[in-house]
Write the structure tokens for this entry.
Amino acid sequence: MVGDALEGHKDSVESLDWSPNGLEIASGSKDGTVRRWGPDTGRQIGPTIETDGWVDTIKYSPQSDKIASGGEDSMIRVWSKDGKLLIEIKGDDGSVGSLCWSKDGAHIFSGSSDGTIRKWQLIDGKELFVLRGHTSNVTSICVSLDECHLISASMDYSLRIWDLKTNQQVGDPLLHDDQLFTVVLSSDGRYIATAGIDKKIYMWSLEAALKHAGDQVRAHIAISLARPLISNRLVLWQCTARREAQGNSS
């Protein structure tokens, strides 16, 4: 662990995001607040941002100058870093559980407990389109590097890829054995990783998936939790790479 745990929230921390410029971390909590932290100092930066309910998801803008938050009250809020509310958007019919931005910071995508994904225009909060297909909570979303596709994970056991030019699903859902909680895209945009309740991480080739080759699972990694995370603290870890020695044992 690097330094002391970051403390200040009064209830469980539901979401974290590292600013794209790498200078700070934001946290969203069931205590209804969003807080910014300096990873080098271990201290809170700026004022505590007070919302009207549980914060389930937060996301920095690509320019690192704004933070979007969503939660149980179905609202999407965009904040300046000094805590000023810039816009409030009445989101989906259910709670907002996932958010991501367009590269230019002009649009926000949201995933909801009602199974929908929506695109919003930041300047006026206008809803631009709705993607329908999931049958349960959309728990995580991300956009491909070329912004041609949106990728979504859901508690309906499926990963889905959407064409953002036609607003249609690409191919069949990529089905898992249990509920999915998160999806991330590799930095080069070639691979998708998914994980959920079955304690495994799956890696997919995006190119293969777009060619309707849903069986192109590259790997699954079993993981386990040592203990429940209920301390309301943020902990920073220093990561080091270790290469296992290869060879035949006699």
Observations:
- The longest helix spans residues 206-210.
- The chain has a mean pLDDT of 86.
- Residues 6-234 form a domain with the Methylamine Dehydrogenase; Chain H fold (CATH 2.130.10.10).
- The chain has one domain: 6-234.
